[in-house]
Amino acid sequence: MTLCQLFLQPDAAYACISELGELGIVQFRDLNPNVNSFQRKFVNEVRRCEEMERKLRFLETEIKKDELPIYDPEDNPDAPKPREMIDLEATFEKLDHELKEINTNADALLRNFNELTELKHNLQMTQGFFDEAQAHPVGVLEDMAGEREIELGGQTTATAGMKLGFITGVIPRERMVTFERMLWRVCRGNVFVKQADIPDLIEDPLTGEKVHKTVFVVFFQGEQLKNRVQKICEGFRANIYPCPENPHERRELAMGVMTRLDDLTVVLSQTQDHRQRVLAATSRNLRTWQIKVKKIKAIYHTMNMFNNDVARKCFIAECWAPVSELDRIQLALRKGSEASGGGTVSSVLNRMITREQPPTHHKLNKFTQGFQNLVDAYGVATYREINPMPFVLITFPFLFAVMFGDAGHGLIVSVFALWMVIKERSLKDKWRTQEVWTIFFGGRYIILLMGLFSIYTGLIYNDVFSKSLNIFGSSWRVKFGDEILNRRDIDTVQLEPTPYNYSGTREYQQMYSGTPYPFGLDPIWQVSENKITFTNSVKMKFAIIIGIIQMGFGVFLSLWNHLHFNHRYAIYLEFLPQIIFLACIFFYLIILIFYKWTHFDGLVSTQAPSLLIQLINMILLSYPTEPESSRTFYSGQRGVQTALIIFAVICIPWMLLGKPIYRIIMNKRRANYSTVTNHTENAEHEIDEQTHENESTKKRGVVLDVDLRDTDTDDILDDDHLHQQHHQTEVEMSEVWVEQGIHTIEYFLGCISHTASYLRLWALSLAHAQLSEVLWQMVLHIGLSTNGYAGSILTFLVFMPWSCLTVFILLLMEGLSAFLHALRLHWVEFQSKFYKGEGYPFIPFSFRLLLDEVPIEG
Amino acid sequence: MEKFAIALIFFTVFWGLIGVVLPFLIPKGPNRRLIQTMLILTSACCWLFWLCFYLHQWNPLFGPLLTTTDARILRELWSTDF
């Protein structure tokens, strides 16, 4: 990783950045951190981009409203040139305007249409009223608009003084009853209301919803009542329509309304078609435009980070780039310069020396990305330190499997993960808003490995949904006779573990063949009462063994780190005491475990040493003779153990004092050369400043990468991102003592506590096995133990709760639990031995990363 | 030759092939080192796991405790010969 300076011509800058964005391997630094975002150079362009994005969002909502499909572009559209941006803006403006116009027109037309529909119904219904009224002449009806006498069917029946006016209108059905009552009360019963329901659903002109409506006619006499009726109609928001009493006029009006309705329908459908066409055309290009606008915006954001050198008329950019990719970057710059018209001066890339810590970059693919995320969640690796990911790749699923250990459950998990992996392409963009799914999908390779290892450990634990497989034939046989097995006062018998006749009598029966079951746990243990006692022993021992080996491996990785950073002193002062301590006590414990496994059998079981007690006695330097399991069990044990303890104890002050004393010596040496170092310091200081003021950079030719070998890396591994003025020659001594004290205590106490912590491998596997067995015994067994047809039906019914509980409790809950514990084991117990994790990640300026971000759904 | 040693040799050779021989046969590519690491670690972990369970059962300190019913069933099911 090297810090580079780019000098870009203003015309070529845009094209060059576009090329670099496609490449996606440089991380730009902000050279204007103190500048407000509103005062940056390209703020107008960014604003224009945001305006374009807003218009595109509007278009997208309109397209979604009509449920048109949006086509995803097959290929990646390039970032458009600056001139294209103006064209795009114009296009968007036009589309935006057009669509808004169509919308307003459509709304107005629709409202008109609805009103006319109501009027039509109105006319139809009132036609019915007046026809009825013909049969019973009620009186002379007056139109409220005019005051003429109307002939009802040719008859003029003028009853004295009775001149009725009427109002017709349409009201929602649910308000009709209250409307009538209100009219009755207010007009003191002096009005006559007739109503008829409109059978179809009508779209209300104001609200746009479809409701049931009723047509009503209110007959009244006099002005006062007319006003009151009008006010009540307004209050109930009934739509009043004029209605001529003359049947001829009515018919004419009705026909007029019909024709207008027909016209409007045609116009409306045409408007809709037009809108569809516009939106369809847009939908084809929408995604491409969105990508283009995003790219333009990203480029201008990046260009805002540059330093504008007015004197030389060029842009200066600083970026981090991997050394191996410098050629590709040069190529991209050349392409950009040529594309923008081939100026006389092409863009220049210049490497810079810096004392800053570069970002950490790991080359990953879709398989390793998941595991790297697990490691990075704890801390991003310090620049150039060893990345634990390749080891975590296998040990994490393995430790998970030790805790999960069931071949049946492992099979289900593997199949699920396999489905996700095989259907990767199609599932990639589905359900992107469901966070739980994206988590599972992102970790599909992790889950696959976890499942596969679980199948293996499940077979070794001989546990398939809590039942054992007998593939090779058990090593145990029951050789008791009927006289023992048929006795009523005996509940249990224990098989003889010694495979040879130790007593010399005839009563001895060999029940154990002498050869263990070749692959995994013998199937007889599943049916025995003391299975847990037996498996506890082996699981605990394995947990300790794998824990100590993993911690030892971690300490060796720290050696690798020391070698890489050329910290010779750290090898002798940190690595050696650490590994010697670990070996003396804990590797010795592993040797004892293997010794006990191979040298003690059923005959001498009472004398078999208790390893825990032996370890405690070793540390306490006490060697009792009682009880038998605490006695020494090999000759010379006392001497060997005492020697080991002495070695181990020596390591503590070795590590505590070694490094600080070394530092004191180094400081003294540096103090002697202080005058010389002062000169070189000042020179470097000037060079640093010059680098930033760009005065002599062009003369600098080939610039060497940061040479970490002969510098004090504690300064480089500093978290400070700002430019340092000078490197420190003096480190505060008290700090060093305190730091080293903390590290020493942390390591030595950690050795013991972490070793015990690995016993969670045993604990969780026990819990899982027991849960699985309970589920089988209490749930599925009910169905399997019933006989006959009832049994088959019961099994069918019982399978559902059994499988649901298996999935939710055993797979999901236990799986999550084992995942968490395995992760903790890696983060704390494994990585604390060598991992610093104080880096910051390399986030390149890449269009691909930009476009992968989930768009925020409006 | 002890029967005990047959399984030991078989599995050691099996995981040895996977963990020691196979890494040399991985073709050159960007993922060569990664695959080698994976193979070595997998075979080491799996072999160790198998070995611990095998050794633990070799000289058992106590035998399985069976109910008399289960004992009778097993005596019939598995007969009394090894």
From TrEMBL, chain A:
Top-level taxon in the UniProt lineage: Eukaryota
One GO MF term attached to the UniProt entry: ATPase binding
Chain segments annotated as transmembrane: 391-422, 442-461, 542-563, 575-595, 643-662, 778-799
Keyword flag Transmembrane helix: yes
InterPro entries: V-ATPase_116kDa_su (IPR002490), V-type_ATPase_116kDa_su_euka (IPR026028)
Cellular component annotations (GO), alphabetically ordered: plasma membrane; vacuolar proton-transporting V-type ATPase, V0 domain
Subcellular location: Membrane
Alphabetically ordered keywords of this record: Coiled coil, Hydrogen ion transport, Ion transport, Membrane, Transmembrane, Transmembrane helix, Transport
Coiled coil: 42-119
Membrane topology type: Multi-pass membrane protein
GO biological process assignments: vacuolar acidification
Family, as annotated: Belongs to the V-ATPase 116 kDa subunit family.
Functional summary from the UniProt entry: Essential component of the vacuolar proton pump (V-ATPase), a multimeric enzyme that catalyzes the translocation of protons across the membranes. Required for assembly and activity of the V-ATPase.
PANTHER family: V-TYPE PROTON ATPASE SUBUNIT A, VACUOLAR PROTON ATPASES
Name under which the protein is recorded: V-type proton ATPase subunit a
TrEMBL record, chain B:
Residues that span the membrane, as ranges: 6-26, 38-56
Coiled coil: none
Membrane topology (UniProt): Multi-pass membrane protein
Transport found in the keyword field: yes
Any matching Pfam family: ATP_synt_H
Subunit structure: V-ATPase is a heteromultimeric enzyme made up of two complexes: the ATP-hydrolytic V1 complex and the proton translocation V0 complex.
Role according to the record: Subunit of the V0 complex of vacuolar(H+)-ATPase (V-ATPase), a multisubunit enzyme composed of a peripheral complex (V1) that hydrolyzes ATP and a membrane integral complex (V0) that translocates protons. V-ATPase is responsible for acidifying and maintaining the pH of intracellular compartments and in some cell types, is targeted to the plasma membrane, where it is responsible for acidifying the extracellular environment.
Name of the molecule in the record: V-type proton ATPase subunit
